[in-house]
């Protein structure tokens, strides 16, 4: 992981990044960017060259726009004039990502921040730097090909005020990178047992986290039959991970459930090859809820969190479950399996039923790469949000926006509900209605029990993966949901269980 430190020092670096705001300065081609004064006092020559260069290249100051001023015979040797847009957290996040890319072949870079800037700037900048510098590789590569950037110095007017923001950014970035690592890992390694062990290991670094992993014997004894059915086609048996963070001051208990299909072939209703190629990402929800819970512990958030990750590999084999099978879920509800490729909702249903019956939760949120229909409706970067609770939906949407992840609230029309009825069981796992993401959400809702009105579902099928670099995202797993969940948990930690802010509830 990139080393990022705060400093007040003024040594002259080889590579310097200076912020350019979307200024009021108007040139011939419209409004231009404005060089922002920084706590790093660049000498006069540097500032004058930078000012002339910004106007010469018509720098817009747009968030993440970088123009590199090369000064081959001078020091600093290069100045990255980096757009921060409006200078809010999102602008600085984009700037951080752009600096990480522009400086990837330099061993270090110094970034100047405006004096007395809001600490959110440091959080955004650091998150952008860490997340865009992230890489996942299985094979080693020749040293000349590997990126060189190893350390970043953020120059501020005083370090103390910004240390907490940097610490939060570090915990969030670490958790996001954990989720990315797990999701990027090829499924030849990534069995349910492997994934459960990685979560156990990651949790072990934080005292106060506890992990229980249920193996098939115990899943059978307790009746988690849908997890067992989905996992039965694989020689690598399923697991249920229960990860808990239980700080003494917590007044609210949040249960997070994440879909953990370590590979989804579709089962007997097998997927065509193009639809199967990336199905190692089908545990992105499980990775996100586990990583967010670890971040809650790292940040010592005063909220109780339980992450449930049902893990299974959905394979086609002589022992696989079949279309037409009826599975009896944890707690007794039954589902007629019309499509073995609608496996995610089956394993989530067991975990949600368990949460609703046994975990005494105040709020229940599930994350899942659940349907191809999500991206048809909302595209690659916007997750589908479902909830019958306006305050919960709004809080999650606000957290997502602040985190730089996007969600859009979707409807669950009452008159679609009948389509989930089965002739032989309580429910079917697939319908002819067409609204695939909506129907999956309405199916899950049936398992929320008494938490029905305090439940939300995030269908993050497409956002879990990036096909190309995009701001703080690199190609591959995005770790989608970690940042949204940590923001939201932080907010919940400051509220009474009813959703009312603590101070207001007390008075
Ligand atoms: N894991 C898939 C959904 C998915 C598709 C995630 C593409 C990410 C990218 C899920 O298990 C699935 O196969 N869903 C089916 C449901 C259908 C059979 C009702 C789908 O969306 O086609
Ligand atoms: Mn599937
Ligand atoms: Zn799936």
Automatic annotation (TrEMBL):
In short, the EC number is 3.4.11.1, 3.4.11.10
Catalysed reactions, semicolon-separated = Release of an N-terminal amino acid, preferentially leucine, but not glutamic or aspartic acids; Release of an N-terminal amino acid, Xaa-|-Yaa-, in which Xaa is preferably Leu, but may be other amino acids including Pro although not Arg or Lys, and Yaa may be Pro. Amino acid amides and methyl esters are also readily hydrolyzed, but rates on arylamides are exceedingly low
Which GO biological-process labels does this protein carry?
proteolysis
UniProt keyword terms in alphabetical order: Aminopeptidase, Cytoplasm, Hydrolase, Manganese, Metal-binding, Protease
Q: Where is the Cytosol aminopeptidase domain?
A: 339-346
Q: Which family does it belong to?
A: Belongs to the peptidase M17 family.
Q: What is this protein called?
A: Probable cytosol aminopeptidase
- The species this protein was found in: Planosporangium mesophilum
| Protein encoded by which gene | pepA_1
């Amino acid at each position: 992981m990139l080393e990022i430190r705060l400093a007040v020092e003024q040594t002259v670096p080889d590579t310097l990044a200076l912020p350019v705001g979307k200024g009021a300065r108007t040139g011939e081609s419209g409004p231009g960017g404005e060089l922002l004064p920084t706590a790093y006092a660049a000498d006069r020559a540097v500032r004058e060259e930078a000012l002339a260069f910004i106007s010469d290249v018509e720098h817009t100051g747009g968030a993440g726009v970088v123009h590199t001023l090369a000064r081959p015979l001078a020091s600093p040797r290069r100045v990255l004039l980096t757009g921060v847009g409006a200078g809010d957290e999102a602008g600085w996040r984009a700037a951080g990502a752009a600096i990480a890319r522009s400086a990837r072949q330099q061993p270090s870079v110094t970034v100047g921040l405006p004096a007395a800037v809001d600490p959110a700037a440091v959080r955004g900048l650091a998150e952008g730097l860490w997340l865009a510098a992230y890489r996942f590789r299985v094979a080693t590569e020749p040293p000349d090909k590997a990126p060189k950037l190893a350390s970043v110095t953020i120059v501020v007017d005083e370090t103390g005020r910004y240390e907490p923001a940097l610490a939060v950014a570090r915990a969030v970035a670490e958790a996001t990178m954990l989720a990315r690592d797990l999701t990027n890992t090829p499924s030849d390694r990534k069995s349910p047992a492997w994934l459960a062990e990685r979560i156990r290991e990651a949790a072990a670094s934080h005292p106060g986290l506890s992990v229980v992993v249920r193996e098939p014997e115990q899943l059978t004894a307790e009746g988690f039959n849908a997890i067992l059915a989905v996992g039965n086609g694989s020689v690598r048996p399923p697991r249920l991970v229960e990860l808990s963070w239980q700080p003494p001051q917590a007044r609210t208990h949040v249960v997070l459930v994440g879909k953990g299909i370590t590979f989804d072939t579709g089962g007997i209703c097998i997927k065509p090859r193009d639809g199967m190629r990336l199905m190692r990402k089908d545990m992105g929800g499980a990775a996100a809820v586990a990583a967010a819970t670890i971040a809650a512990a790292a940040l010592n958030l005063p909220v109780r969190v339980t992450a449930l990750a049902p893990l299974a590999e959905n394979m086609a084999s002589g022992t696989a479950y079949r279309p037409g099978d009826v599975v009896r879920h944890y707690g007794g509800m039954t589902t007629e399996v019309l499509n073995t490729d609608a496996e995610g909702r089956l394993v989530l249903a067991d975990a949600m039923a368990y949460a609703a019956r046994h975990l005494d939760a105040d709020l229940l949120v599930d994350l899942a790469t659940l349907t191809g229909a999500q991206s048809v409706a909302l595209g690659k970067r916007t997750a589908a949000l479902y909830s019958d609770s306006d305050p919960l939906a709004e809080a999650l949407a606000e957290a997502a926006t602040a985190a730089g992840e996007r969600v859009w609230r979707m409807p669950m029309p009452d008159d679609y509900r009948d389509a989930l009825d089965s002739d032989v069981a309580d429910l079917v796992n697939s319908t002819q209605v067409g609204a695939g993401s909506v129907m999956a959400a309405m199916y899950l809702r049936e398992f929320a029990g008494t938490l029905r009105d305090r439940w939300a579902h995030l269908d993050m099928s497409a956002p879990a993966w990036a096909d190309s670099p995009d701001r703080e995202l690199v190609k591959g797993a995005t770790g989608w949901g970690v940042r949204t969940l940590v923001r939201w948990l932080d907010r919940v930690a400051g509220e009474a269980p009813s959703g009312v802010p603590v101070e207001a509830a007390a008075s």
